[in-house]
């Protein structure tokens, strides 16, 4: 993703999810309309999820007819995939990727990601709602979310293993388990923050957790 090292898994996912450049025939005006549609779709997915949103209402929110929206996206699933791809692109641009860290430095990456998320509540809410829906076996984003977790956990575990091999982390660290734990904590804190954003310091809570974990992992 832009501004960050991209793994082969990222590249494959980006291909499936239609990472956006400007293909031949696309105009600046067309890109502007697409951006507006993506923003509207994100708001609707945050409020009602994929299943509770309609192309007609998203189009109306942009001052378009449904046919006008379909000029830019092939259908509702295509729009969903574009929303997810755009969130990934922006995250990687803002905070990089786990694979750019080493050893316990992956906790710095995770902390940056949590802080970044705290500044985009609508996007995070949409992602959380869609992820919850995606546990359904027939949800169109199920494979995306499963692969996303696998990719991030695999990248983070690899960097933790680098820390073990360099002697910075304890030799008995179960890197895959720690990587999974970090993302589980991030998701749990995020849920609490989404439910009570004015009173829950997600970034501060994660920072305290990261400090404890860093001390526990140190060689």
TrEMBL record:
The keyword NAD does not apply. Residues 1-32 are annotated as: Disordered. Residues 31-91 form the HTH tetR-type domain. Residues 54-73 bind DNA. Keywords: DNA-binding, Repressor, Transcription, Transcription regulation. GO terms for molecular function: DNA binding. Residues 1-10 have a biased composition (Polar residues). This is Fatty acid metabolism regulator protein.
